[in-house]
Amino acid sequence: MAKPIQPLILFAMRMIVGGVFLIAGALKLKDPEAFSISIQAYRLVPFGVAAALATYLPWVELVVGGALLAGWRMAGAAASVALMSIVFMGAIGSAWARGLDIACGCLGDAGGGAVSYPWHILGNLCLLAMALILVCRGGRRIDSGAR
Amino acid sequence: MSAGIRACLRQGVSLWAIALLPAILAMLVHPRRVEWNPETLSEGEVSIEQALAWGASAIWLDARSRADFEAAHVPGALLMNEDEWNELLEEFIMRESEQPGAPIVVYCDSRECGASKHVAERLRGDEFRFQNVHVLHGGWKAWSEARNE
Question: Looking at domain B45-148, which of 3.40.50.880, 3.30.930.10, 3.40.50.360, 3.40.250.10 is its CATH number?
C-alpha cells in the first residue's frame, strides 16, 4: 500500500521545502539591510561577508525554492536546500552555545523576539531530512503522477 | 564521482549562478540595499557626533533589555524595549510632551542589533507618527567609545 502514496508524499515534501524557501527568500528580499544586521548579530562573519550574504542568499533561496516548486533541476535544488539547512543549523547552534540573545533572521526580521533555538534547529532538521530524501530521488521528476 | 552526483552538482551550481544576476541588480538598485561601508549611515540613522551634539535636548531611548539598561545607560535615557512596550510607553509619552519636537535617539547594543531600528520604526509608524526619530549608528558601543575618548 505504501508504494502508491509515495509519490504524493514526495510531492508534498517538494511543495513544503520549496514553499518555505521561496517565502523565506521573498521576505528577506523586502529588507536586505535588516537581514544583514541579523547576520552580523551571529558574530560569525566579518561585516563585508554579512553584507554579501544578505544580498545574495535571499535570491538563492528564492531561485532554489522556485525550482523545487516548479519541478526544475530538483536534485540540485534539494542539495542546495540541504547545504543551506546544515549551515543555518550550524549558525543557530553556535549562537545557542555562546548564549547569544538574538533574532533568528530566518524570515528577514532583524528585530522581533529572541530566537527559539531548539525549535529552529528542529525545523531545519526537518527541512534537511526532506531535502536529502528529494536528493536521493536523483534528477528524476517527482510529482504526484510520476514514478 | 558518479554521473548522478555530477548532475546534481551541475544543477546546484547553475541555480546559484542564476541567483547571482538579480542579486547584483538588487545590490545596485534596491531601495533598502545593504550598506557595504560600516561607517556610512543608513536611512534613519544619526551619527554619534550629531547625537552627542544634541545631548540632553534629545530624548534618548534605550532599546536594550532591562538588565543591560540597569547595568549602564546613557544618562537621562529612558528604557524603551519591545518586551515591555506597554509598561514603558507612558513614561516616554510624558517625556515627549515635556520636550515636544525634540529629536528622539534610539539605541541598542551596537551596529549588529536590530532592536533600536524596530523601536524607531514603531514610533514613526501610524500609531504614533513621531517624525524626529533617529537610530544611533553604532548604538551603546559607539556612545561608550565616544565617552572614553
Answer: 3.40.250.10
